[in-house]
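Section 4.2 – Deliverable D4.2 (structural model, holo form)

The reporting period included a commitment to supply a predicted holo structure for the target in complex with inosinic acid. Inputs used:
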Amino acid sequence: MPGVVIIGTQWGDEGKGKIVDMLAADAAVVVRFQGGNNAGHTIVSDGETFKFHLIPSGILHPGRFCVIGNGVVVDPSVLIEEIEGLRRRRIDVSGLKVSANAHLIMPYHVMLDSAHEAKLGKLEIGTTKRGIGPCYADKSARLGIRVQDLLDAKILRKKIAAALEPKQQLLRPFARDPKLDLHAMTEEYLRYGHRLEPHIADTSRLCWDALDSGETVIFEGAQAALLDLDHGTYPFVTSSNPVAGAACVGAGVGPTDIDEVWGVCKAYTTRVGAGPFPTELSDQVGAHLRDGGHEFGTTTGRERRCGWLDLVALRYATRLNRLSALAITKLDVLSGLETLRVAVRYRGSEGAVFDEFPYHQSILHTATAEYEDLPGWEEDITGARSEADLPREAREYLEAISDSAGVPIRLIGVGPDRNQVIRVGAQARAAA
Ligand code: IMP
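Output (structure tokens):
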């Protein structure tokens, strides 16, 4: 399985990092292909917790290349902080490579993100305010600053000056902020360049070399299908493409390099930020999911909105990504609920039935979910290590998910630790 893409099937926070970390044990390269430090991955290894925003989840496996691909937007101060944090914990970071073509998040991007949200008022997106949208906007407008620019003082200064100019009007209220001084900003970013230079590389070539010699490359998605700029719940989306198709563009490989696409799906649904969420729960069950699943953002600490599993949305994500396997995470959080509900269709405000995810925003915003009820289980399943260890009701719940999506489940997460995972089918046979 040389080229494997791992993506989120919901609105993010499905636990992709843990799945990537597991699969990275057999890979030569792990490459992130979109997003930035709006993402947050938590990995628990031997009781120790690691949180990453930019660095690919494979970094805990020595000897792997961990690549920040050209499709990622990089805040260099955050990246340097993560590198130093790992060094302090004696984790080898020599395999970390950053694409010379990746775009840089600049101080004005972060300010613009907050300013845009403030302007929208009640209509705000609920962004992570990390400057992601404005950075991708500059990239498209060809006003972006790239990682390679950090290595040339003259070019860097020119590009920052050009990018700042059209923003002068918008940024005038911040004009006294030293962060927006051309000279100070150029000096600051040159210092980042010195620190990052050993990691800057032609990462597309690195992926090619690994794939060409038959080694496994994992393409690590951030955010998720329903936050996709083109296919998600626009405008309540992120500014990149988290779907599997974007892995090629964001890492610099061809479509025939992809052999498998794994979708990571939480056993229930969460969402941070604004936007439609047909299975949202604002009752005690929602609180059970939030407390049991520790549903607070890794990046912003915001409380996540929680709800039942949405099979209409999962089937949509399956189609958009042509999933070949599913990894179901946080199944343990459902223990103790007498009845479990899964959304099987939506009903529009005028009574029409939607078996497919509606393409029109007005329908989605007012649709209500219709459910099938399944029996829950009482048992604590955090110690289960094979499917046979699970209660019958849990196995039936998983079967209902797999049947609805038409995709086999290969991994099941039953707790936060690295080893709290059940391997299924081919995965289990490979591990035996
Ligand atoms: P942005 O990516 O910061 O521009 O935020 C746009 C939307 O995507 C907001 O609703 C965020 O809450 C959401 N978002 C961005 N990154 C993540 C993530 O890693 N997990 C969950 N939601 C995210």
